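// run 5 | inverse folding | seed 20
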């Protein structure tokens, strides 16, 4: 099972073949236009797709190129910008929260503050099934203001309490805030880079973790100021306990 998060920086209709080539089972795409605006003229359209956004030019798209089906949970709270709870229907179903955190009128609630709020609102959803939380958090421990409600350190601690593991940090052994591989390049410039995109998965999936990769900037900066984070798991048998 291959999961991908990628902020495409808009115009996904022109850029989707790069993501489709990865053949993700589930991909979360931030800054994606609505499905009605994507004609899939270059072929290789996703088999499953859903989208949410308050503006048709910018939202969160969720796609599968392998036929995995999913639906937005009834627990969805659109006042959180954005954290979308999704029920993924595979032979072994699981939950997923698609994240794209944004600014807020109260700066203390911006970015990581929105993700922190989502953990509280969706706590029952997270605990009721194996849950993956992935996306563009727009947050890093080294750059989050201390006065923010749910700063990055607090957010990371709460994710750990919920039994979730950062795929990148587990695979590399790097500490939070000390990441060596950026996922974001402001202005697409190497000197303004940071690590703000994450995939958090259940600790009980650790033995199934196969690969964690951040897309190479030399390839992906052609399309966006973000590089995708790709996490792949070995399939679990329906008879397995983990």
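// decoded
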């Amino acid at each position: 099972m291959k999961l991908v998060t990628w902020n495409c920086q808009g115009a996904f209709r022109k850029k989707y073949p790069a993501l489709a080539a990865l053949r993700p089972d589930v991909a979360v795409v931030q800054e994606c236009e609505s499905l009605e605006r994507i004609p899939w003229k270059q072929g290789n359209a996703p088999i499953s797709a859903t989208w949410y956004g308050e503006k048709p030019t910018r939202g969160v798209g969720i796609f599968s190129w392998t036929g995995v089906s999913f639906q937005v949970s009834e627990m969805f709270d659109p006042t959180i910008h954005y954290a979308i709870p999704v029920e993924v229907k595979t032979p072994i179903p699981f939950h997923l929260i698609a994240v794209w955190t944004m600014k807020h009128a109260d700066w203390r609630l911006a970015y990581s503050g929105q993700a922190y709020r989502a953990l509280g609102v969706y706590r029952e959803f997270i605990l009721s099934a194996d849950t993956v939380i992935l996306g563009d958090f727009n947050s890093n421990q080294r750059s989050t203001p201390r006065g923010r409600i749910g700063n990055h350190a607090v957010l990371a601690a709460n994710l750990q309490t919920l039994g979730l593991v950062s795929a990148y940090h587990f695979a590399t052994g790097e500490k939070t805030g000390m990441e060596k591989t950026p996922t974001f390049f402001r202005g697409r410039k190497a000197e303004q880079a940071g690590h703000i995109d994450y995939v958090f998965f259940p600790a009980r999936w650790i033995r199934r973790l196969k690969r964690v990769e951040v897309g190479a900037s030399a390839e992906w900066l052609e399309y966006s100021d973000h590089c995708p984070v790709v996490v792949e798991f070995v399939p679990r048998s329906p008879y397995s306990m983990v």
